[in-house]
Write a structure and sequence with these properties.
The complex is a heterodimer of chains A (264) and B (214).
Chain A: E1 3-8, H1 16-29, E2 34-38, H2 46-49, H3 60-64, H4 70-73, E3 75-76, E4 83-86, H5 99-110, E5 115-119, H6 126-133, E6 137-142, H7 146-161, E7 168-174, H8 176-181, H9 187-194, E8 197-203, H10 206-214, H11 225-237, H12 251-260
Parallel strand pairs in A: 1-5, 1-6, 2-4, 2-5, 6-7, 7-8
Antiparallel strand pairs in A: 3-4
Chain B: E1 6-11, E2 14-19, H1 25-38, H2 40-43, E3 47-52, H3 59-73, E4 76-81, E5 104-108, E6 116-119, E7 122-126, E8 134-137, E9 141-147, E10 150-153, E11 163-168, E12 172-175, E13 178-181, E14 193-198, E15 201-206, H4 210-213
Parallel strand pairs in B: 2-3, 3-4, 5-7, 6-8, 7-9, 8-10, 9-11, 10-12
Antiparallel strand pairs in B: 1-2, 11-14, 12-13, 14-15
The chains are: A alpha/beta (264), B alpha/beta (214).
The complex binds adenosine-5'-triphosphate and magnesium ion.
Chain lengths: 264, 214
């Protein structure tokens, strides 16, 4: 059975594309057939983060307009079998695709793939509506900032209005030293406000930027803490019970995290 | 005289196959395979157009043919309706032939990500072409700055078109229907280079080796 998951946030730049690349890559490393779909038409990034930019000949708009077939536009990943990217068009805009076309596209992809991960653009306009059109589930990304959490809350409301219930939360860019000093918005407070299940917490790590620039998702780096955080996140997505990794923030904090996962 | 049931002809659309009647699908496959393998490089990245004249050819047979060719060669087949004008060979005025001397556009400024500059003649970019930018010309393309995006020369089918850049770091180069992509590990040179089609492949050479090229 296959599943389509949209990765969304409301606010821009909080880590949707990074998370799509890492979650998809690790699912493929675990042997699943995965299609990554970039719906950020006009501002595509996922191809760069995956290191596949130079392979793009056809894109999502060509597919929905019938210029080529889906199979032709899917770019095979250079590292992992079973991992494919459907790139966004760069020279068009969000209105080049409709939600109905997206639904059709996702259902076509479901015939071939176990997981379809849709990288959503920032905002709540047409691009967002397209991205969620064919989704079975949603992952909402936020950072520990009040403004990002506000936008995430807005998005969760819109998802529910579109019958996408029980989205999963990812809190990205947690800064260890800020948490230690008590300067960062608390994970517990975020969950308190958003009231959805926490799928994972990703530390702020400059290696994520370095690996994105190289086109190699950090999840492939066995020694990286951020990579481990993504691997654990995927395990939880698959329904496995994995504790949050120790982000080196002291007992009180970890204790509260553990309670959130009911494993204290 | 018996009319040939399958006629295969090269045109500017690529290969056009004209089917007169409902032919045996296996026979058709065999003929197409022969033709494609004779000149595989030519078709790489190209589309193959099949125009059907007969009304009794079965839809499902055409679908099978499409799948077969896509799986085997990665070539997309488009099924279209037959019109007499499509089987005539490419004429001179359809392909831009002003490579030595012909109309030319000068584009002033950088072509940024998401921008397209397209011209039915030769194209000179007085600036850079950034990643995600696309320049297309029916003739030659000359980039006086750094070419980091995609350049498509001879897009109406002229394989003699060239791409020249002061610094050639293109994501992809396309000449007529031949495509090449940049190597994944970049080793860019900082001298002018030229890209041409030789034996069905795009090759890149320093601009001072002109004698080897022409
Ligand atoms: N955990 C992290 N640690 C450090 N840098 C990060 C982390 N997550 C993301 N980044 C960086 O933040 C920037 C934005 O990330 P990304 O492009 O994934 O966000 P996005 O939500 O897809 O943005 P947009 O809304 O523009 O599509 C990138 O430079 C990325 O490398
Ligand atoms: Mg993004």
């Amino acid at each position: 059975m296959s599943e389509s998951i949209v990765i969304t946030s409301g606010k821009g730049g909080v880590g949707k594309t990074t998370s799509t690349a890492n979650i998809g890559t690790y699912l493929a490393m675990k042997g699943y057939k995965v299609a990554l779909v970039d719906t950020d038409i006009g501002l595509r990034n996922l191809d760069v983060v995956m290191g596949l930019e130079n392979r793009i000949v056809y894109d999502i708009v060509d597919v929905v307009e019938g210029q080529c077939r889906l199979k032709q536009a899917l770019i095979k990943d250079k590292r992992f079998d079973g991992l494919y990217l459907l790139p966004a068009a760069q020279t068009r805009d969000k209105s080049a695709v409709t939600p109905e076309q997206m639904q059709k596209l996702i259902s076509d992809l479901k015939e071939e793939f176990d997981y379809i991960l849709v990288d959503c653009p920032a905002g709540i306009e047409q691009g967002f509506k397209n991205a969620i059109a064919g989704a079975d589930r949603a992952i909402v990304i936020t950072t520990p900032e009040v403004s990002a959490v506000r936008d995430a809350d807005r998005i969760i409301g819109l998802l529910e209005a579109s019958d996408l219930h029980d989205p999963l939360l990812v809190i990205n860019r947690i800064k260890m030293d800020m948490v230690k000093r008590g300067d960062m918005m608390d994970i517990e407070d975020i969950i308190d406000i958003l009231a959805i299940d926490l799928l994972g917490v990703i530390p702020d790590d400059e290696n994520i930027i370095i690996s994105s620039n190289r086109g190699e998702p950090i999840v492939t780096d066995e020694k990286s803490l951020a990579g481990q955080a993504y691997r654990n996140l995927v395990e939880r997505l698959l329904g496995n019970d994995v504790p949050l990794i120790n982000l080196d923030v002291g007992n009180g904090f970890m204790g509260r995290l553990k309670r959130l996962f009911k494993m204290a | 005289m018996i009319k040939e049931a399958i006629k295969i002809q090269g045109t500017k659309e690529g290969l056009v196959i004209v089917l007169e009647e409902d032919v045996d699908i296996e026979l058709l496959k065999e003929k197409i395979v022969n033709r494609i393998e004779k000149s595989l490089n030519f078709f790489q990245g190209a589309t193959l157009t099949v125009r059907v004249k007969s009304l009794n050819i079965k839809e499902e047979n055409l679908e099978k043919l499409k799948d077969f060719i896509l799986d085997k060669y990665g070539i997309e087949v488009q099924i279209k309706n037959f019109q007499e004008k499509h089987i005539k060979n490419v004429t001179d005025d359809e392909i831009f032939n002003g490579l030595e001397e012909g109309i030319t556009k000068f584009h002033k400024g950088t072509v940024r990500s998401g921008q397209v500059v397209k011209y039915h003649g030769n194209l000179v970019i007085l600036g850079d072409v950034n990643p995600g930018g696309l320049v297309q010309a029916a003739g030659n393309i000359v980039v006086l700055g750094t070419l980091r995006g995609i350049a498509h020369a001879g897009f109406t089918g002229n394989k003699d078109a060239v791409i020249v850049a002061s610094s050639l770091r293109a994501m992809q180069l396309r000449i007529a229907n031949v495509i090449s992509r940049s190597p994944d590990k970049e080793d860019a040179n900082d001298y002018p280079e030229v890209a041409v089609v030789k034996r069905g492949k795009i090759i890149v050479k320093p601009l001072y080796h002109l004698n080897d090229l022409w």
